[in-house]
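tokens incoming
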């Protein structure tokens, strides 16, 4: 299993560079499969079309040529015989509904499993589908390897829950580490060689997130959940928060009860004046003895 995983990550890493070169070549040449254990059955789970839920614009259409080239490379370099892999492309239908994409992805995986064609999983444009499938498939056939270019939230760091997940773009933890080096206040007891940080202590997270947005429309029926999922911005900032509190006693203490934050929904109409008022408010919260910073993920709402 591990050998497959290493090989697959190698080929995918190697072909990362020449991405859009060959969009037409999505058809696999049909070779008779070599004797068992071939073919190696891989399911690729991605949405067919782009949508607002798809943060990185990942689609089957875009991934297919990359995978095809990788498969050909393996044959060309005589690492494995022609027909070594059987790819199944599965539409997660993320563009229809982010809350149901999780289900579609899982159904695809279960189907492949029942047909005894589940050796590895590639893809995922949404973290919810990825999390669910990864959790469950760790218990099938002794664990199914999953390679993905998404899955950056720190939630997925847990090797206990997601033992077979390989994230090819790293995780937000790396981002958090850079932020820590760059802006965080470094107290005496935190181990840092170069104290070249800006040493900001009073930080506030100002970000787009429908679920927590201060300007969200409150439902009449309070018991009704909005159903909105957490945003990309939320996950990246959450990783920063976690990293800071892990690394520094000061931030752990400062943010113990609550982390200063101002989530808003950038898709709603926000008056210019309102936005100004928000900025004023957060600037007050982030000023202090140490100068604060404002993290702004997106300003799309301004001036609409
Ligand atoms: C390859 O997978 C498809 C389903 O995607 C299946 O119908 C076909 O039988 C498989 N071929 C082999 C040789 O396993
Ligand atoms: C790093 O620099 C800041 C301000 O320049 C200072 O308050 C802090 O004590 C320094 N930390 C260490 C570990 O030297």
């Amino acid at each position: 299993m591990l050998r497959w995983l290493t090989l697959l990550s190698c080929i995918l890493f190697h072909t990362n560079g020449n991405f859009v070169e060959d969009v037409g070549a999505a058809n696999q040449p049909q070779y008779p499969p070599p004797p068992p254990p071939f073919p190696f059955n891989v399911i690729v789970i991605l949405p067919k079309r782009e949508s607002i839920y798809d943060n990185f614009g990942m689609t089957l259409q875009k991934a297919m040529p990359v995978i095809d080239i990788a498969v050909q490379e393996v044959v060309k370099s005589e690492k494995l015989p022609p027909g070594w892999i059987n790819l199944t492309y599965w539409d997660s239908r993320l563009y229809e509904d982010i809350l149901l994409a999780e289900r579609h992805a899982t159904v695809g995986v279960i189907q492949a499993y029942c047909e005894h064609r589940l050796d590895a999983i590639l893809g995922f444009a949404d973290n919810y589908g990825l999390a669910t499938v990864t959790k469950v498939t760790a218990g099938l056939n002794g664990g199914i390897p999953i390679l993905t270019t998404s899955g950056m939230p720190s939630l997925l760091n847990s090797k206990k829950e997601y033992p077979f997940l390989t994230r090819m773009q790293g995780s937000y933890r790396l981002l958090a580490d850079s932020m820590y080096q760059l802006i965080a206040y470094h107290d005496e007891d935190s181990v840092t060689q170069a104290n070249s940080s800006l040493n900001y202590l009073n930080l506030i997270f100002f970000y787009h997130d429908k679920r927590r947005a201060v300007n969200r429309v409150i439902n009449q029926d309070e018991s009704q959940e909005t159903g909105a999922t957490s945003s990309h911005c939320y996950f990246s900032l959450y990783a920063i928060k976690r990293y800071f509190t892990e690394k520094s006693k000061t931030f752990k203490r400062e943010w113990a009860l609550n982390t200063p934050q101002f989530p808003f929904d950038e898709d709603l109409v926000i008056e210019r004046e309102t936005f100004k008022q928000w900025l004023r408010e957060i600037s007050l919260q982030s000023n202090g003895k140490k100068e604060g910073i404002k993290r702004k993920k997106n300003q799309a709402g301004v001036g609409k």
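note: Residues 174-296 form one domain.
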